[in-house]
Design goal:
There is one protein chain. The protein is of the alpha/beta class and 659 residues long. It folds into 3 domains: 222 residues, no CATH class; 226 residues, Type I PLP-dependent aspartate aminotransferase-like (Major domain) (Aspartate Aminotransferase, domain 2, 3-Layer(aba) Sandwich), CATH 3.40.640.10; 127 residues, Aspartate Aminotransferase, domain 1. It contains 22 helices and 17 strands. It has a 7-stranded mixed sheet, sandwiched between helices. Helix 3 runs antiparallel to helix 4, helix 11 packs antiparallel against helix 18 and helix 13 packs across helix 14.
């Protein structure tokens, strides 16, 4: 891949008098006549020397590092259609052979030479012969990157991707991602035989000067760190973010259901609903196939639909908002408390309109929000309070289980939750009429067989899943005790690490610690990348929903949510972590913070004497809106705490107080 050098193509574009803004409005849908002829004619000239050179390079790769000699990866072609891109392999081991953004140390000696001269791109002549690529055009992109394009940027997909292009000969790896897109859009708009010949001439000159991919970018400029790792399925973490506590009890429960002959709508669902409702001091429970459909049913049961608005936080999984859209209503995004990451009750009064029907609060990471304030505010404005308690099984607020503060509440049982049924959801309510309507919505609207009184759905949970849920529910108290011990130890340990803030604990609430989300004051992405490289799974929970492409039509800023999202990092905190694993996680986080700080200090410019103080004053005055307040943390002890080893005592759950 040619990434450096400049040529006459920039002057050619200037003479055409077209701007990149024009390209987005009238980008042609077809390539110029003769482009395919140019590709085939050039291929015929290059065929014999390319085969000879390719064979020599393949032999060198084989001798140094063994097979395979080719790197294959799915890329997005013309119109976004996927194709398999070919390269000569330059990475050193099987661990790195499918990594689109390898570490420098993972590149072989032969690979460094091939990349320097751009010879690793030689097999893409096969892609050109197949008609999947052209000699000149935008470089082929990864399929998930296409999902981030706006409607204008999608214009770069209207031509075949190329071996080289305008971005390559203008210094691609020195550009930001938007700058690369701009050059690609200029090419699409101005494509011609003359431009292609100019780009090819510049490419040859850059290759002959040995200035090919020096400084080849190690990081994807558009993707988040977690997305980069998704492209490397061979890299499996040693310590997972979540690990379900599944054992012989669940296996036996499923076996019993399979031998019973009743696989759906049977006694296991009825028992799971009753036991889960009792555990949370609720009147009724209704199971569903997933938490997502349970949320939709909860809204439909309250007759929320087109023309209605529902206030939701943006710091949540996307289904909280998309379920509002599913029923035809409009989600209105609210900002959050900077410590608990839950919906700020003060936001409601500012967002209420005559269309507002409900507030759908989310218990982030399972920790309840200020439910008493939410209840009062909703009552003052005549609004329904609904709970998205997907992560909050077993949580309490002022000694009362969550799921009973709103008119109804949804719980989720995906494998990342504290108890799981694989997939599944459940709605709690103390209103019999609401429970009846939920059951109708779940089962085609039929109170009895083949009698349908409303438009319903097939949203049933299977008997096997319900049986797993019952077995899991019996383990809940032990799971929560282990997680709370682990989280307490981790918070004390991380209090010793400058630049990281452990999760805030609401004093009058108990959290099930479904997530353990810290705030990183420095380079959060570098810390995340370091953890992943060390085999510790970590993620960003969650990218703000209001910034997702599906809600791009809403021009709304949530300063606290966006500030938190830029710093948040979730690390493993499941019930089966061993003391050694807890210590590894904490030590690796501390190591990552230190490395990120050292890297940042090396990149900071040294001010000239006498200028630093003057420069600092206007910069400080120009700082925008809110400063994220750090959450209070546990005071550091003189020495690092030892990991917890005490197991919770077995026994029946403590009695739950009634509201």
């Amino acid at each position: 891949m040619v990434t450096r050098g400049r040529g006459s193509t920039g002057r050619y574009l200037t003479s055409r008098g077209r701007t990149s803004a024009d390209a987005g409005r009238d980008t042609p849908g077809t390539q110029y006549h003769g482009k395919r002829i140019l590709d085939l004619a050039t291929l015929s000239l290059l065929a014999i020397p390319a085969v000879v050179l390719g064979a020599i390079c393949a032999l060198a790769i084989w001798l140094e590092d063994g097979p395979p000699v080719f790197f294959r990866q799915v890329r997005a072609g013309r119109g976004g259609r996927p194709f398999v891109l070919l390269k000569l392999r330059t990475m050193t081991s099987a661990r790195h052979r499918s990594d689109a953004f390898p570490e420098p140390a993972s590149i072989t000696r032969t690979g460094r030479l091939l990349r320097r001269l751009s010879i690793d791109e030689l097999p893409q002549l096969i892609n050109v012969l197949r008609g999947e690529m052209s000699l000149v055009g935008p470089r082929p992109t990864l399929p998930y990157q296409v999902q981030r394009y706006d409607s204008r940027q999608l214009g770069r997909l209207r031509v075949r991707p190329g071996l080289t292009g305008l971005a390559q000969v203008h210094g691609r790896n020195r550009m930001s991602w938007p700058e690369r897109i701009e050059w690609d859009l200029r090419y699409v708009e101005n494509q011609s035989l003359r431009l292609d010949l100019a780009v090819l001439a510049c490419t040859v000159r850059v290759i002959l000067t040995g200035d090919g991919v020096a400084g080849h970018s190690r990081h994807d400029p558009i993707a988040q760190v977690a997305e980069r790792r998704c492209a490397v399925p061979e890299v499996m973490p040693r310590i997972r973010l979540a690990k379900p506590d599944i054992g012989a009890e669940e296996i036996e429960a499923v076996r019993a259901v399979l031998t019973s002959g009743t696989l759906t709508d049977g006694p296991q669902n009825a028992a799971f609903e009753r036991e889960f409702a009792d555990r949370h001091s609720a009147g009724h429970g209704v199971t569903f196939a997933s938490g997502t459909v349970a949320l939709a049913a909860m809204l439909l049961a309250e007759h929320i639909g087109p023309g209605d608005e529902v206030i939701v936080p943006s710091m949540t999984f996307v289904s909280t908002a998309t379920c509002v859209r599913h029923v035809g209503a409009t989600p209105v995004f609210a900002d959050i408390d900077p410590r608990s990451f839950n919906l700020d009750p003060a936001e409601i009064a500012r967002l209420v309109t005559r269309k507002t029907r409900a507030v759908l609060t989310v218990h982030y990471a399972g920790q309840p929000g200020e439910l008493d304030q939410l209840q009062k505010t909703c009552a003052d404005h005549g609004l329904l309070l609904l709970e998205d308690a997907a992560e909050a099984t077993g949580a309490e607020f002022r000694g009362i289980p969550v799921g009973t503060f709103g008119k109804s509440a949804m719980f989720s049982f995906t494998p990342t939750k504290n108890i799981t049924t694989g997939e599944g959801g459940l709605v709690l309510t103390s209103h019999a009429e609401t429970a009846d309507r939920l059951r109708l919505l779940r089962n085609h609207g039929q109170p009895s067989r083949y009698q349908h009184v409303l438009i319903g759905y097939n949203w049933r949970l299977t008997e096997m899943q319900a049986a797993i849920g019952r077995a899991q529910l019996r383990k809940l108290d032990a799971i929560l005790a282990r997680k709370r011990a682990n989280a307490g130890w981790m918070s004390r340990r991380l209090a010793h690490v400058p630049g990281i803030t452990p999760p805030y604990q609401v004093p009058h609430a108990s959290s099930p610690h479904m997530l353990y989300t810290c705030l990183v004051a420095g380079d959060r992405d570098a810390v995340l990348d370091h953890l992943v490289q060390r085999g510790i799974e970590a993620r960003i929970y969650f990218p703000p929903v209001h910034l997702q492409p599906i809600f791009a039509d809403r021009d709304r800023r949530l300063p606290v949510t966006e500030a938190v999202a830029a710093q948040m990092l979730s690390i493993p905190m499941h019930s089966q972590l061993t003391p050694d694993e807890l210590a590894q996680i904490a030590d690796t986080v501390e190591e990552a913070i230190g490395q990120a700080d050292r890297a940042r200090s090396r990149t900071l410019p040294t001010p000239e004497p006498g200028t630093a103080r003057a420069a600092a004053r206007p910069a400080a005055a120009a700082q925008p809106t809110p400063v994220l307040q750090p959450a209070p943390t546990v005071q550091p002890a003189p020495t690092k705490p030892l990991p917890p080893t005490v197991q919770p005592a077995a026994g029946p759950p403590a009695p739950r107080p009634a509201r």
